[in-house]
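Section: Multi-chain targets

For targets with more than one molecule, the full set of components is provided together so that the structure can be written out for the assembly as a whole rather than chain by chain. Components appear in the order listed by the source. The example entry contains two components.
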Amino acid sequence: MVDLRFSIGSLEFKNPVLTASGTFGYGSEFDDFMDVSKLGGIIVKGTTLEPREGNAYPRMAETPSGMLNAVGLQNKGIDYFEKHIYPRISGYDTNVMVNINGNYIEEYVALAERVSRLEKIPAIELNISCPNVKMGGMAFGTNPVSAREVIRAVRAVFPGILIVKLSPNVTDITEFAHIAEEEGADSISLINTLVGMSVDIKKMKPALSAITGGLSGPAIKPVALRMVWQAARAVKIPVIGIGGIMTASDAIEFFLAGASAIQVGTASFIDPQAAVKILQGIEAYLIAGKFSGIDDIIGLINRTV
Amino acid sequence: MPKRIEDFKIVDNQRLNNDLFILELAGSSDLPELKPGQFVQAKVEGSPQTFLRRPFSIHDVDYARNTLKLLVQIAGRGTGVLSGLGKDDYLNLIYPLGNSFSLPGKEEKLLLVGGGCGVAPLLFLGKYLKSNGNSPDILLGFRNRARIIEEAEYAKIGRVYLTTEDGSEGEKGLVTDHPVLSESEYDRIFCCGPDAMMRAVAGYAATRGIECEVSLENLMACGIGACLCCVVATVNGNQCTCIDGPVFNINDLKW
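Its structure, encoded as tokens over all components, is:
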């Protein structure tokens, strides 16, 4: 048996395979395909204080080895989440975390306070990197001053585990990794999607109603891996790697580059069992390599390069 | 009905014309009870450009043979690869997905309206209605005579009315130009086809106060309500075509 456990501060995870916000619904969408409790954790759909309708259709375009989305944080708001979704998902025997978003710092703070009162939600992922909203989101995560302000404000009111989800749409990812660490974040997760676009040449119009969207899938994996490697060398807090992970070998690349855990995102759209298959593959890799646990391979490439 | 992920074996690949073909697929386990209007998400292997699954309505079901059929139009690389599948190849499906058409009362006078490749769910629906004791009229629109498909199959279900855009068969024009729409009184219409056609049929139904359901084919990624990409604006806000649809009552759509 290999030891797959990892922890962020005081919060222990049974394994380092999590699901990325916005790609796994609230978990229950996948109940027919897997035992969700086998995963290390799930990060539910980006949640806001007020309900949001998101952007107009079309919101998605397939691209080479990936896809663009411009959903725009459609969700029913924290009241609905508390009343109708939380009771349904708090029974999972895994860490259920909420990805929180706001237009203003006050909204992030109010939301963090609300989530802090939910006993079965041990962590929040502070989303300062959504590229598909007019206000908030990436606007915070690409400006060092506002990134610091929002992380500081949320940290002040949220006693649980605080993960900050970083945007790749910046010149120097380590700057934002440092800011998160300095402001007391327990972990950082990266990358959110890269801003991109696609044009429909038959209709001679942008493929997305919002014109630009967030690129995900294997197309972004090399960029994600590079940023995770840079961030992991820059900070001491655990780094969660995200970006185009489709298979266990993709995930293992992230661990070797310094990620302490990974999130499976777009892969779940194509194979709803992707996350559990990736978990099994990681375990098999560690057993085959005679490692005692996942810790043995985290950042391994940095010991030789 | 729990959703499954399963490899299906190709039993037959029947080419109907330059663009359209029908795949008959055998399940590796017993088919669950499928409902007309439901769809599958097919994984296209061997085409790196085809990243996401492709949604297809269930065109027909044969429980005795444990097979289902998909009517597919070659629209790009993904469907191009599927057109080349042969006997004993495999296709991975996530199914059954989505809601279904409402089951009407036996006494209701029904009209099925379809156009082009959009006729896909109507054959399964028609057979289902016939077994329920209904005898629906069927109005189908195509570009020209050469594009007409499976007319004989529909004729086994009910009276078939045809339109072609060039008048080479049936009435000339669009389905909404067909005189049967002014000559007959229907209680309910089930429609699937190009967006403009469904909107026109919905307009006709709304003016006459006829119950009408349409099956939408919005672009989607997951098919199971996780990605929120396939939404349609409804009176209840943005809803997912994949789990709240694909069949919608036109009264619920903000068209």
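The interface with chain A takes residues 2-5, 43, 48-53, 94, 218-222, 224-233, 237-238 of chain B (CB under 8 Å).
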